[in-house]
Fold:
Amino acid sequence: MEFYPNSHKKLIPGLFTTLNILCGTTAVILSVNRLFEPSAWFIIVAVLCDGMDGKLARWTGCESEFGMHLDSLGDLISSGIAPMVLIYSGFFRSADWTVSWICLLYVFAGAFRLARFNLIQKGDRSHGYIGLPIPVAGMTIASLFLTGEITSWFRHMQFLAFVIILGLSLLMMSTVPYDWPKLEWGRPVKIVGSAGKLILAGLIIVFTKYTLFPVLFLYIIAGTLRWGFLLIKEKLAVDF
Structure:
């Protein structure tokens, strides 16, 4: 993340942050030139780099406020602006301008989400996230464009794309809690759950084009349903 000439160990996290920004910017250029599938892959690589820089900064003990803010700016480019340009170019370029405002809402929601994360959570992910993480939203959009066959079919369904972008935007600005999947090997239930997560991860790696969107969609829906269940449970506890 933040690095100085006299501290070589800080170069590696900073390199991944730089790659995150460069991949996101490249995705924008590719989307403008209507190269949708390569743009989607660059967004996914950018998100992976984003995940690595934070981990490396924690492992090397070189976390900093500067690095946190630089990382957020990279996220806004790679998971906010780049997916917005991608979906605008793929779905809404020929649509009426009154429909295209949803793309602007998505970028605002991403910026709002990042600002709240930095202010309230101070970059701490140990207790989960408040609202849908913007990298998940960005990868969800990118996953729609991973195959030419799916893209050509889906491009004619602007209303469905509109609903997806609206839903992602609202969830990023919401207070719905999301936990990042963790591997736990204690009780048998935890072992089974962790094994299932590893299998899903393997399927995503091997069959990325066909599994990434369904898995991300299930993750988003599961978090929303759990939030609704907790609200109902809390209300029932108060009533009785």
Q: What stands out?
A: The domain at 8-179 is CATH 1.20.120.1760 (Four Helix Bundle (Hemerythrin (Met), subunit A)).
